[in-house]
Amino acid sequence: MVMAGRIRIGVVYGGRSSEHAVSVVSAGSVLAALDPAKYDVVTIGITASGAWLATEVDPAELSFANRQLPAVATPPGAATELTVFGKDSAVAELETVDVVFPVLHGRNGEDGTVQGMLELAGVPYVGSGVLASAAAMDKAVAKVLLTAAGLPVTPYRLVRRGQPVGVEQVAELGLPLFVKPARAGSSVGVSRVADYGELAEALALAYRHDDKVLIEQAMTGREIECGVLEDADGTVSASLPAEIRLRPGFDWYSFDAKYLDESSDFDIPPNAPAEHIATVREAACRAFRALDCAGLARVDGFLAADGSFVVNELNTMPGFTPISMYPKMWAETGVPYAELLDRLIATALARRGRA
């Protein structure tokens, strides 16, 4: 029975992306934190093959097994045993909710596709709209918009499948290089290239995930993340940033380094002068506005010794797993996980009221 006054929220998770498993774990954390006194929760899982299924889920089932993430693109057991209530039950459930929380990462979820569907259906949702979601997902497009807004970005070259790429095209970027799909996340398909002889193999891996690939200059600054949150009145604020410090054995912030224990340490905030921290937070808010984001985003970049900050990328639906940096940064800023969800949902509902 639905209690009077509760908000009916649809949590959508899984998805047809290489970050399917990350989404499942994020959803488990979100479901565990939603206050049942405030929310009547409907869960909808999207299988790796793209089927939308109404589900009954114990949040504990959508968690790290021994704190290790299941294989990428392979749904955990809970995601392959979704309880189906009827052929059209997922669509029917969406029609009953007040707001949707699309806890989806990567393509076909965080890239504007699901957001467009929800727009057409007239259902309010947490997070950025179609334009910002698509622009942030495409790192090449994001760099163009960020540069136009006066924000420094990581130097890069954009290449496409079938385009010849030789040393002469990337020599000015120097070594090492990072080769990555333009439209993927969680470091999936990303390679660190320390020798030009490794470039062809790195490109082949990236092309397994996208037809567009970025070849980026390796940055020597401190690796920094910062959370941005938009409240119901339109106010945009930045969290205390976090510095990622990799432990021995990890040369860069790879998929394993992101999601496996004992791979990295974090300082929230970084051990840096107050004016450097202020620069990061101000740049994060500017980047959020430059891409016309809404609700939330995580801004990643590099902090130089002189206090300048280079923006690397934005994530419009950052991870919400137990070890994800977005909720951790906001917790250190004074916004606990459950309150963070409340504010995101309130902002989504307020946007509906202004539409």
Notes on the structure:
The protein is α+β, with helices and mostly antiparallel strands and 355 residues long. It folds into three domains: 7-125, Rossmann fold (3-Layer(aba) Sandwich), CATH 3.40.50.20; 136-152 and 220-354, ATP-grasp fold, B domain (D-amino Acid Aminotransferase, Chain A, domain 1), CATH 3.30.470; 156-217, ATP-grasp fold, A domain (Dna Ligase, domain 1). The protein is built from twelve helices and 14 strands. The protein has helices spanning 20-33, 77-80, 89-94, 113-121, 130-137, 139-148, 167-170, 199-207, 255-259, 274-290, 325-333, 337-354, and strands spanning 7-14, 39-46, 52-55, 99-103, 156-160, 177-181, 191-193, 212-217, 222-230, 236-238, 242-246, 264-267, 296-303, 309-315. Strands 9, 10, 11, 12, 13 and 14 form a six-stranded antiparallel sheet that branches. The relative contact order is 0.14. Mean pLDDT is 87; it is low at 64-87.
